[in-house]
Amino acid sequence: MAHPQIAAFARLAKGGDMPKRLVSGQGSKLSRTMHDIRYDEIHDEFLIANPFAQAVLTFRGGADGEAAPIRIIQGPSTQLGAGRMDVDPVHNEIFVPTGNAILVFPREANGDVAPIRVIRGPDTLLNDAASLSVDPVNNLIAVGLNNTLKADPKNNGALLIFNRTDNGNVKPRGVIRGPKSGIVRINQIDVHPPRKLVVAAQPGPVYEMEPEDAFVGVWSLDDNGDIPPLWKINVGPTSTMKKPFGLVLNPKHKELIVSDMRLQSVLTFYFPEIF
Amino acid sequence: MRRRLTMKTGILGMTAIFAVAILVMGILFLQQTQRGELQGASRRARLWPTGQAQLVSVEPMLEEGSECLWVPASAPLTAGLLQQASPAAQRSVTADRAPVRTIHDPNPMFSAIAVAPENDMVVVTDENLFQVLEYNRMDNTPPNARMTEPKRVIGGSLTKAEMMCGVYIDPKSLDTYVVNNDTQNWLAVFSKNAQGNVAPDRFLAVPHGTFGIAVDEGKQELYLTVQHDNSVVVFRKEASGDDQPLRWLSGNRTQLEDPHGLTLDTKRNLMFVSNHGSARQRVSGAEPTTYPSSNYEMNEEAEPEEAWRFVRGSGTFEPPSITIYRLDASGNTAPLQIIEGPKTGLNWPMQIAVDDERGELYVANDMAHSIVVFRVTDNGDVAPIRTIKGPKTGIRNPTGVALDLKNREVWVASMGNHSATVFPLTADGDVPPRRTIRGGPAEEASLMIGNPGAVGYDSKRDEILVPN
Asked: Is A130 in contact with B468 (Cβ distance < 8 A)?
């Protein structure tokens, strides 16, 4: 994609409606390949990562134009190298997956700050950890494992569930993986704490332009094993989805919002079952 | 019966209440989208209120339709029962449904551009609908026309072409080379007769995140920038399949920092690269020599630890730049010159093109909505010698630039307004284009949604946040 930007659309926008705000430009310190964004409702901020500068950027909620981030986590002490994250606004922490580890920073960290906790080691099963979401109510973390190699594309992806305060070489309390789960790789994740649910975008093999088995799935955070989702919305003519990459829940309106890479679109589904 | 009637009346009543409520919300929403309330910086950047529309997406009907989904109220119970029942096969519920709203730009989004003047051939890549579009060089969309129909369209799931940030036309064969950026690891080559959803006539596995493309026709060598690897990789021009590169330019001394555009000056034996400035240090000894080609996604977020090529925590933000090397530079080689600094006005420099006759370098300067021109001999913090910029130019978020030295014209692809515009080579200032080819209506800006890998929801402002 040639042009980096963050576009803010009205919730009811549709078709070619223009965004209400755009954040972009050299001063924003954004790059392309921004594969996560998280809004912190309590502090009215949003977070995004620049993977090419190995930085987590925090902006004011109403940032506009070539606004600069108000805080940047970046530097040798951070151990950062990845592009996704989530914020726990209740316990004031930022969680960052980096392949074989989960790094935890204070929410207000700024500059070259070391993580306060690191989940890492052979017992964690962390490998190609690419995305996560934090449940501050049930004190859990859902982590999505990606799939880098083509050789075994059907079995590498997984969802791991950890305790929010886990640290060091700990075993996940749940592992959702296997053919019944349908997971090939996991992109963006969101959680719904009141019902202890995790929702994950499963876009299918990366090299397939329009994978037939891509879907958005909903699991319980208590699930463990080769478990199919509680609910799933498949790609296809009904949903119109082709390759779901991102998702976020809007509990107020009982909506699931999905970004679809192949459609270059944002789709909103009314999905009251989740809520 | 009476109960059903009451229920029906109740539904109608609720429908009316919903409709009124949504109408009021719609009016409020319309007011929010008036020109005066658009936030200043966005307006300055590229927005103007369409005014049209947002409002009347009378979504109420869809939400009203959701009355049929009263079932959901019992969903928690259903879910609980399903979990108790436990057999995996019983608990998975296909919940396919249509979206209630879809944000989508229906028009092509011009990204890269190339011109073959001997054949009056202009090709642009469309990063919105994933198409390669060919136009006639002399096409000029009338002001009131919705668009100009392309002569040829290549696009579809067979093409191996998706996020095409770079394009090159072979001046002899008129083959079109397109470079995918961050979703497909292929360079695809289409013959001049290719059309529709067709497989490429030739394809080459390339590193993840290629952006710029240039060819040294004399030496038959193909150059690509690799954004995700901070490198330039050189292949034989006719390479295909899993052929390995001839050489790499890569390493901490190169000052390749989020490289994008690429152009060659074969007369002066120089290579130019535009950089956005997101930098990180390569692991010592991790300079690439071979590439595992199509077996790897090379997705750094998910990269196996043993394959990690950059030092964690080494990231920095550097100024945007144009770095200049010898044409045959390879390995960890420092640039000969660097154009960098506040006088340059660079703001996300994208594709670049060199006029080797006049010794001038043209830069598509995305966020300054301009084309800036430097001398190929420039070095350091220098101002451009010419700048094409302003409301008369029709340039908006330019990502592509190409030169037609035969007809002395510069072509600009503007991602922000579905257009390609043509100027005299020496154009300077706020000047109107000689011709404009539009892929969409003049009054409709481009949404510029590209590879939306994530989405967020701002619950305070009721806004959907979409990063590219």
From this structure: no
Give pLDDT, residue A152. 57
Pair B127, B270 in one domain? yes
Q: Domain locations in chain A?
A: 17-243
Q: Give the three-class secondary structure for B295.
A: helix
Q: What is the distance between the alpha carbons of residues B269 and B61, in angstroms, rounded to a whole number?
A: 64
- The CATH architecture assigned to A17-243 reads 7 Propeller (2.130)
Q: Are B376 and B392 in contact (CB under 8 A)?
A: no
> In chain B, how many domains are there?
2
Residue B4, C-beta contacts closer than 8 angstroms, at least 6 positions apart = none
Provide the whole-model pTM. Answer: 0.87
Q: Give the model's confidence band at B286: pLDDT under 50 very low, under 70 low, under 90 confident, else very high.
A: low
Q: Which of B72, B278, B320 sits opposite A272 (nearest CB)?
A: B72
In terms of Cα–Cα distance, which of A250, A214, A149 is closest to B459?
A: A250
Alpha carbons A72 and A29: distance in angstroms, whole number: 10
Q: Residues B351, B423: one domain?
A: yes
Query: What is the ipTM, given to two decimal places?
Result: 0.98
CATH number for B214: 2.130.10.10
pLDDT at B185: 87
**Chain B residues within an 8 Å CB radius of A122:** none
Helix, strand, coil content of chain A in percent (nearest 5): 5, 40, 50
Residue for token pair 């100009």: B148
Question: What is the DSSP pairing of strand A231-234 with strand B93-94?
Answer: parallel
Mean pLDDT, chain B, whole residue set: 84
Cα Dmax for chain A: 48
Contact A39 B112 (CB under 8 A): no
3-class SS letters over B335-351: CCEEEECHHHCCCCEEE
Query: Which residue in A has a C-alpha nearest to residue B165's C-alpha?
Result: A2
Any residues with CB less than 8 A from the CB of A108 and at least 6 apart, and which?
A71, A92
Q: CA A9, A26, A244, B461 torsion: positive or negative? A: negative
Domain that holds residue B300: 113-438
**Neighbour-count burial for A161-177, b at 16+ CB within 10 Å, e otherwise:** bbebebeeeeebebbbb
- Asked whether the predicted pLDDT for residue B10 surpasses 50, the reply is no
Q: What is the pLDDT of residues A132-184, one digit of tens each?
A: 999 999 999 999 998 655 445 555 789 999 999 999 999 999 999 988 999 98
β-partners of residue B419 are: B414, B438
Which whole number is the average pLDDT over B68-93? 47
Q: Using the beta-carbon criterion (under 8 Å), do B304 and A230 form an inter-chain contact?
A: no
